[in-house]
Amino acid sequence: MKLSIALLLTAGSATAFAPSSLVHSSYSRHLNLATKSDFCKHSALCMSAAEANVAESAAIADKDTDTNATSEFPPILQELREVAMRLHTREQAPREGKAEEPKKPAEPHVPTQADYLQFLVDSYVVYVALEEIVNEVDALAPFRNSGLERTQALETDIAYMCEKFDLQRPDAGKAGSMYAAQLKNMIKSDEDVPEFMCHYYNFYFAHLAGGRMIGKQMSKLLLDGEALEFYKWGENVNGMKDTVKGQIEELAKGWNRQERDSCIDATAAAFMGGGGINGYLYGRNPH
Asked: In what ranges is there compositional bias, type Basic and acidic residues (predicted)?
């Protein structure tokens, strides 16, 4: 079912979370106004939850995918990109954006280490769900051990954050738990694979694109420049991306128009799922 733009842009809204008393002393909770202004101007974290994920996801659906001349359909990644770009605002995509501009907060939320830890924990439970589904569904066998998996890296980072900043590992929050459950309930048969692949593609590749920008922002703001394992894919990351994109296209060659539409129509829900988790980083989700 397609979701309205209005609902999409309000995804993940909640009361702001107060900075934790356990925040490491090297991070000041009282950034000066110039720092806050710069953070708001340049960071995707100042967007609504869904908007931030739209910006990340659409960035990775590039235009140079080869068209299969023998197919009656264009490449599936091209179709996904076209839908994603329509979910941009005019500010994000002047030529193609059609979504309404969300209301910007009067005062940007400055994330804490506790916010970031919750983001990592919720991301972890979603990646666990994605990997379990890929390992259990025969049609998804080509995507096993792709090199894009993130669960082990996130386990390392969560342990690091807890030890470094004297934080207790939280339970998965509502955003991550609900999205993981949604994914697990999505796959009942091979007919559900196209819908799932939209979520798979958007979640993995969003973190490979705009997600890396968020990682750099958080590293500077909260981790004294330390880079987390979550954002390390090795030297051949572009090769891995190209391989997975090719596998998605190969899988989609066997889909009819209805199955392709099932994949494309899941785009808004995929942005909502990922965007809800981003909400921990700018005060939209309580934890």
From this structure: 90-107
Q: Which of 182, 201, 189 is nearest to 263 (CA)?
A: 201
Give domain status of residue 100, yes or no: no
Domain-embedded: residue 204: yes
Whole-number Å distance between alpha carbons of 217 and 212: 9
Per-residue confidence in pLDDT tens, the chain, 287 aa = 333 322 332 333 322 222 222 223 222 333 333 344 334 433 444 343 334 444 444 444 444 444 454 568 999 999 999 998 887 776 766 665 566 667 777 788 899 999 999 999 999 999 999 999 999 999 999 999 999 999 999 999 999 999 999 999 999 999 999 999 999 999 999 999 999 999 999 999 999 988 899 999 999 999 999 999 999 998 889 999 999 999 999 999 999 999 999 999 999 999 999 999 999 998 887 77
The domain spanning residue 130 has which CATH number?
Answer: 1.20.910.10
Token look-up 């979370």 returns 17
The answer to whether residue 18 is domain-embedded is: no
The H helix count followed by the E strand count for the chain is 12, 0
Closest Cα to residue 89, out of 61, 55, 46?
A: 55
The HSE-up count of residue 82 (CA atoms within 13 Å, CB side) is 11
Residues spanned by the domain of 271: 48-63+72-93+111-282
Neighbours of 65 (CB within 10 A): 18
